[in-house]
């Protein structure tokens, strides 16, 4: 006669008073750790809040125009390769004609089609096609007697970007529903923190390490709790995220100086050098190293925390060591996939630079450690170190918390009885279950101790009380703590 056991996971009653007390104790412990960190972060945010005064910074706006010059919008009707309108005067003077791409464009404000001269780099890359909506520089008011006064500036991308954003929102809400919607709102809040706190603070010369760390903590607290709700599971993931952020910040501060990351090789940062003010390019790079790993770090910590909870719900009797070992198997797979995900994401963003340096006749190691690639490589390594170390720490915290906050369900033991049927015995240990099953077997046990049966099952004097089934929302709140 064999026997097996299983653990019920769905139709269980509410947690006991002891479990609720243990859960409250664990939540108070988590709050005792997280509340001081949050308060100190808010104090630091108030102390470092930028004044908004950027008068000491002088920047040339590439979209600023002289009096009489405007940026206009129009739709391309046709495209031709012909003599550049801007070279017409030179041709009349006897110079050789130069050919270029000319887009005959219907202005959005109305009027006759115009000859818009397309710049060579655009003509060689994608080009301009009929139906494209473009933005062009209108010099006709200050150069009324000269042709070629309309110069291509950029494409108008409003419609495709808005369509992609709407499609993204629809897909996220359709799959993740209310939680996905809250995550998108949290993302908007994160960008507000960057735009109102981190970026102005860097312009004013605030400490970049503190700006990046404090801003990242505020973003993670808001995003995690807003998207996943207030629970011990979320608090555990937040603790692991804060640990990973601390490691990333320390590594960023060291690597920026040790690897001589100056940022002057990039065109955008080179412009910042000539803007004046108190900005530090190496500090900006350091802050960027911290922020760049936020999304992936949040991903792995919430996944590890959820994995521990799900494993515990499937096996409430599992030991802490067993839970940690099982969850770390998931974590190692996550590490393996995430590390090369980060690497290829940065490689894709730096693809033009990779192509350029690959054409240089330089040794591979010199190429990888050159100024063009050093920043991307350091960003990948620093983010990966913080990510990898955050996984075991998050898993350990989750195991410790889940043992105190998880629902301890009554074990359900299923044993074989006469007639090939099964007997579910709840609330007793396995030895009692086996003894009862043995007494009900025909021909088993002592003749004087045979239990009365009906249809192969023991007859109880009083039927067991059926626990009241909680609602789905109540069960979810009870499980998440």
From TrEMBL:
<feature type="region of interest" description="Disordered">
    <location>
        <begin position="438"/>
        <end position="481"/>
    </location>
</feature>
<keyword id="KW-0812">Transmembrane</keyword>
<feature type="transmembrane region" description="Helical">
    <location>
        <begin position="236"/>
        <end position="255"/>
    </location>
</feature>
<dbReference type="Pfam" id="PF07907">
    <property type="entry name" value="YibE_F"/>
</dbReference>
<feature type="transmembrane region" description="Helical">
    <location>
        <begin position="28"/>
        <end position="49"/>
    </location>
</feature>
<dbReference type="InterPro" id="IPR012507">
    <property type="entry name" value="YibE_F"/>
</dbReference>
<keyword id="KW-0472">Membrane</keyword>
<feature type="transmembrane region" description="Helical">
    <location>
        <begin position="275"/>
        <end position="297"/>
    </location>
</feature>
<feature type="transmembrane region" description="Helical">
    <location>
        <begin position="338"/>
        <end position="360"/>
    </location>
</feature>
<protein>
    <submittedName>
        <fullName>Uncharacterized membrane protein</fullName>
    </submittedName>
</protein>
<feature type="transmembrane region" description="Helical">
    <location>
        <begin position="155"/>
        <end position="176"/>
    </location>
</feature>
<feature type="transmembrane region" description="Helical">
    <location>
        <begin position="183"/>
        <end position="203"/>
    </location>
</feature>
<feature type="transmembrane region" description="Helical">
    <location>
        <begin position="209"/>
        <end position="227"/>
    </location>
</feature>
<keyword id="KW-1133">Transmembrane helix</keyword>
<feature type="transmembrane region" description="Helical">
    <location>
        <begin position="380"/>
        <end position="402"/>
    </location>
</feature>
<feature type="compositionally biased region" description="Basic residues">
    <location>
        <begin position="472"/>
        <end position="481"/>
    </location>
</feature>
